[in-house]
Specification:
Number of domains: 2
Shape: globular
Structural class: alpha/beta
CATH class of the largest domain: Alpha Beta
Radius of gyration: 19 Å
CATH architecture of the largest domain: 3-Layer(aba) Sandwich
Largest sheet: 7 strands, mixed
Strand order of the largest sheet: 10-9-8-11-12-14-13
CATH superfamily of the largest domain: Vaccinia Virus protein VP39
Strand content: 25-35%
Oligomer: single chain
Order of helices and strands: EHEEHEHEEEHHEHEHEEHEHEE
CATH topology of the largest domain: Rossmann fold
Length: 287
């Protein structure tokens, strides 16, 4: 990975908003981009040089016409960068309420907590929104009885931090699903590195995979638009009195999320917030 060449694609969005950027990200997520970030009025996307297909990207973006915003893009080969060094410089250990430590393998000499998770992502850039990861971990830690001995799903698992924590909290079985194949492989490897590989199964795909099983707890740290689309599926897949924890959206998006959950047979229990990011706990209503 150190010598891998990357293309940076800058997608201009007018008018720009986080919501419009999320829509664009969702639309191009089937292309082999490894990571995304926003900068001013642009969504920046990163892909290995040999996997970049400008025509395929143009076709996907053309499907966004009529959504109330316009897009244009440019692409440039990035200078050779040691991505492992970038990763090491950008990722600081996370300690959740003094109970759970999330770190990389190069972090040494840290004070151990009750749960210690080591992750080494296969992606070239960052870990995403630390606030949402923090809140979802805290939600798990505060609901230990609901996790112990139960079946848990980590939807949009990424590097599998939540799946690994659930397994360490003695869930009987944990499933991780991510639409990104690189993330699914990373999740698989991280589960084994953390010695919970026998408890955690990871798959590449979307919410349609949920129909394979039913779950006591579903964790979904994704984004608002995907949650609004998939909450009905989560509800159908939850067992009676099962819990759904969702994050990846702003506090002002709560009414939309809770409205969709209520219409899908889920009742609001509580919520948490951090730097305007939100995490909500729902329960499957008894019939």
């Amino acid at each position: 990975m150190n010598s891998q060449e990357y293309i940076e694609v800058a997608i201009s969005i007018a008018p720009f908003s986080e919501e419009n950027a999320e829509i664009v990200t969702a639309e191009i997520s089937d292309l082999p981009f490894e990571s995304f970030c926003t900068e001013e009025d642009k969504l920046k996307c990163y892909i290995q040089k040999e996997l970049y297909d400008a025509q395929a990207l143009k076709v996907v973006l053309s499907g966004l016409e009529g959504l109330g915003f316009s897009v244009d893009f440019s692409a440039a080969l990035m200078p050779a960068v040691n991505w492992n060094a970038v990763w090491e410089s950008q990722f600081n250990p996370i300690v959740v309420d003094g109970k759970c430590t999330i770190k990389a393998s190069f972090h040494e000499g840290l004070k151990r907590t009750r749960f210690n998770i080591t992750i080494d992502p296969k992606m070239a850039f960052g870990t995403g929104h630390h606030q949402t990861t923090y809140m979802m971990c805290r939600a798990l830690l505060e609901n230990g009885e609901a996790v112990h001995g139960k079946v848990v799903l980590d939807m949009g698992c990424g590097t599998a931090v939540l799946a690994i924590l659930a397994a360490k909290m003695k869930a009987s079985k944990v499933y991780g699903i991510d639409i990104d194949a690189v993330a699914a492989i990373s999740a698989y490897d991280n589960a084994r590195m953390n010695r919970v590989g026998k408890s955690v199964e990871t798959y590449c795909g979307d919410a349609s995979l949920l129909q394979r099983n039913t779950y006591d707890v579903i964790l979904a740290n994704i984004n608002r638009n995907i949650l609004l689309q998939d909450i009905p599926t989560y509800s159908v897949s939850l067992r009676k009195d099962g819990l759904l924890f969702v994050s990846g959206f702003y506090v002002e998006d709560m009414p939309m999320i809770t409205g969709m959950a209520s219409s899908s047979g889920l009742e609001y229990v509580s919520h948490d917030s951090m730097d305007n990011w939100c995490c909500i706990k729902f329960r499957k209503k008894a019939l």
